[in-house]
Amino acid sequence: MLKNYSQSKSISIQQLSIKSYLISLLTDFSFWLLLITNISTIIIALKQNWNILYLIWIYWFQSVTIGLFNFFKLKLLAKQDKVQSTFSLHWFFALHYGLFHFVYLVFILVFTIFKEEFFPNLIQFTLKDFGWMFILSLAFFINHLFSYFYNKEEILSKDINQVMLFPYARIVPMHLTLILAFFLGSSSLLLFLILKTVMDIIMHGIEHKKRDNKR
User: In the predicted model, is pLDDT for residue 8 greater than 60?
Assistant: First the structure.
C-alpha cells in the first residue's frame, strides 16, 4: 500500500512538472516568435519549391546566431563570477564553435558552387530566393536577439558550463535532420522541416524550462 502511494505521488509530481513546463513554454513570447519563424520558413520553402540547399544556408545562419548570443551569455556570466578561468571560457567557445561553423561553411560553399553536380534538378537561385533567404535569416536573428534580452535575468542564474555546452546539444539534432534530408532527397523535405521545427522548439523549452516565477 505504501509502495502504491509512493508511485501515485511520483506520477502526480511528474504530471505537475509537465503541466508547469507547458504553461511556462506557452507563456514564453520567445517560444511563439521561434515557432512563427519556423512555420514561415516551411511555408516559404514549399511555396518557392526550394531544395534542401536553400534551407541549409538559412539554418547555418541560425546556428551561427545561436552561437553569437551564447557568447554574450558566457561573457555575461563571466563578469558576474569574476573568475579569470571563467572569463576566458567565452573566447574558447567562440574559437571552437566558430571553427566548427567555418568548416561547415566551406562544405556548404562547395555544394553551392558545384550545385549542378550535387543537385542536377536544382532551379537556379533568383533574387527573390535570396530576398526570402535574407528575410528568414534576419527573422531568426531577431528571434534570438529578443530571446536573449527576454531571458537575460534567467541567464544569470545558470551554470556557465551548461551554458557553454547547450548550443551543441541544440544544433546537432537540427543539422543531423538536415543532413539526413540531404541524402534522402527533396521528396521528404516537408517531413524533415517539421522534425527540425519540433526539435528547435523542444530544445528551446529545455533551455528555458527553469523560468523565474515572478515573470
Answer: no
